[in-house]
Design a protein that fits this description.
Length: 280
């Protein structure tokens, strides 16, 4: 029976929603405070609408030009997802190769690190020069930027596999491929999703930067065009759209993880339920 003094015990769902609300309140409060400061400064003594438009002007102009923003969002989203898909394939293949051979690890890993030291500001224009203004250079730049965190996360995940489970499977006659599929790959999935979240944020930035280097459409070329026309309000509106797209893609990684890892989901739910039950 529920304690008459404390009422009925909170359900796990109620505890989960309360935790989400409490976690969201601090960043929302900071964003609201910054938005208020921005609005007041821009409308009372700011440098002018051409330099720093008010937040309300950015929102209103973004709404008025929503069709242009939407038409330029789609090419950026297409380049982001296509390049990111390529980086997933390349990153997984490289991680399997590195995990399978110590020689490959010593030979390939330094090259992967070097690939991330190349300045994007120099590589993107060259890629556009080589492959033109179509989709291919954007895909290449996105894949170049995002495959590294995916590869490293998977390699570290393989290394975290339980050696006792691997030994048990080998004593039962399992080959290397079966050990990898049953033990090492599942162990790497939490690491993979952590790397996935890092890579997806890089993907949007890389796609927009590639469009800056040369494109016929997309948020990057839209920002550049509006900047040259001294429409700072539309530049900031495009920035807000790209940020919203990044947040949506970032959130989707959690949804995919939630679906792909039921054991992890069950463990989190049990932990929240125990925490709620332990509250006085």
């Amino acid at each position: 029976m529920p304690d008459p003094d404390t009422g009925p015990p909170a359900s796990p769902a109620a505890g989960r929603w309360r935790s989400l609300v409490l976690a969201a309140l601090p960043p929302l409060a900071v964003v609201a405070a910054l938005a208020l400061v921005w609005q007041l400064y821009a409308t009372h003594g700011g440098p002018g609408a051409d330099v720093l438009p008010s937040l309300s002007r950015v929102a209103s102009q973004g709404y008025d030009h929503r069709r242009d923003l939407w038409h330029n969002l789609l090419p950026t989203l297409r380049a982001t997802l296509t390049g990111f898909g390529c980086s997933l394939v390349v990153g997984f293949a490289l991680s399997v190769l590195i995990d399978a051979s110590r020689l490959a690890r010593r030979a390939v890993m330094p090259l992967l690190v070097v690939s991330q030291t190349l300045p994007l500001s120099a590589i993107a224009p060259l890629v556009v020069l080589w492959f033109g203004f179509g989709l291919l250079p954007k895909v290449f730049v996105v894949a170049l930027v995002t495959f590294f965190p995916i590869t490293v996360a998977l390699v570290e995940g393989y290394a975290s596999a339980d050696p006792d489970s691997e030994t048990l499977l080998r004593t039962m006659g399992a080959g290397r491929a079966r050990v990898f599929r049953v033990v090492r790959l599942p162990s790497a999935l939490p690491y993979f999703f952590a790397g996935l979240r890092i890579a997806i944020t890089y993907a949007v930035v890389a796609a927009i930067f590639a469009e800056y280097a040369g494109a016929t459409s997309g948020l990057g070329i839209y920002m550049q065009t509006q900047k040259n026309s001294f429409r700072t309000d539309l530049v900031l509106a495009a920035v807000a759209v790209s940020a919203a797209m990044t947040l949506v893609l970032f959130g989707l990684t959690y949804v995919i993880e939630w679906i792909a890892l039921p054991s992890r989901r069950a463990g989190r739910g049990q932990g929240r339920a125990e925490a709620v039950g332990a509250e006085p």
